[in-house]
């Protein structure tokens, strides 16, 4: 039973069709066939008689593919070779239909190419190159078998040439025998016989020369063929060596990447461990803070003492100003002394006399800050004093556009109602009730949070 495998495919010449992928196996050769029907918009293309077809493309290692196809029943039949299947992957292929010009002029030959179609080479489970890669065993075996076949054919050709030479020698001997017979038969025809012998010898020599030429031509063909096979195989071995070198470099890079990845994972794990240790330490610190022992008495303190870390070490509520560290205010003793110099509370009247009393200041203004009830002004003190006198030179009707009734007499007095900022009441001490030497006194039950620098606070109780 043949082991051939055939797949069918329709390929467009003018447009790209939806191709069913052609699936081949890596390293398969001379067993898998592709039957290709060429079509265009009008249907199946008729391949002209005398035309020939080739499968064209580039394999996975960059080598060109240009392989003969058979044409049977108007179909192109390609049998896959190892040139196509040597490397796994997808190869883009096309069919070229060639037709030679009847004139024999190669420049006039015709070529029609199909649309491109993919051929998928499935990777073999066995890497043949890895079995005995260093000796290139498979390659050398193929090359040796090829060369052996060529040598066998050359030896067969040489044997045929030798037979031809032997036949020529027999013919020569026969000719010589015939000549001798002719000489014996007649001496009168010597010239004719000699001519015949000469012609026969010429023919024999020509046959021998042609035989030698054919032999040398076959030897040249064998030599050229062997050299071509060896060169092609050497190129393939070189390309395969390069591919193996690239693969080793890729595997080295992959190993380095895996090493780097392992190192990164190790570093990340170490960082995670350190972070967990730090988090646990932080939790321990917080737990220690929350579980501080009771060493003080809770409460509100107006004076505290701290340690070098800013923590409260002790607290107190001093009642004396000097204990608070305040130096710019009177002490209680000093305040009492100054108050003793003032009138007793029992001596302070509960009401003011009709004249308002005799205060030291009015809104912090002393008597010298006011004009007396009877006072005069100089000319320069009158802001709207006229610079010129009216025509009568003396008694003007107005001064600065104002009648005499608009001015006060030289001697005049004021009632309390005429003083716009006259106080409604006087302080109890009869003098400066708002301040003592510009220091206010405020009687409070507890010290305020925000204190005024010009206020003396007296805590009652």
Please name the defining characteristics of this protein.
461 residues, 19% strand, 4 domains, alpha+beta, 5 helices, Immunoglobulin-like
Structure description:
- With 461 residues, this protein is α+β, with helices and mostly antiparallel strands.
- Strand 6 and strand 7 form a beta hairpin.
- The protein is built from five helices and 16 strands.
- It has four domains: 5-126, Immunoglobulin-like (Sandwich), CATH 2.60.40; 137-265; 300-326, no CATH class; 330-386 and 402-461, no CATH class.
- The strands form four sheets. Strands 1, 2, 3, 4, 5, 6, 7, 8, 9 and 10 form a ten-stranded mixed β-sheet that branches. A two-stranded antiparallel ribbon has the order 11-12.
- 36% of the residues lie in helices and 19% in strands.
- Helix 3 (137-185) packs antiparallel against helix 4 (190-290).
- The longest helix has 101 residues, at 190-290.
- It starts with a strand and ends with a strand.
- The chain has helices at residues 82-85, 128-131, 137-185, 190-290, 332-340, and strands at residues 5-12, 22-25, 32-40, 43-44, 52-58, 64-72, 75-79, 89-99, 110-113, 117-122, 303-306, 312-316, 361-362, 365-366, 440-444, 455-459.
SSE arrangement:
Elements: E1 5-12, E2 22-25, E3 32-40, E4 43-44, E5 52-58, E6 64-72, E7 75-79, H1 82-85, E8 89-99, E9 110-113, E10 117-122, H2 128-131, H3 137-185, H4 190-290, E11 303-306, E12 312-316, H5 332-340, E13 361-362, E14 365-366, E15 440-444, E16 455-459
Parallel strand pairs: 1-3, 2-10, 15-16
Antiparallel strand pairs: 3-4, 3-7, 5-6, 5-8, 6-7, 8-9, 8-10, 11-12, 13-14
Helix pairs in contact: 3-4
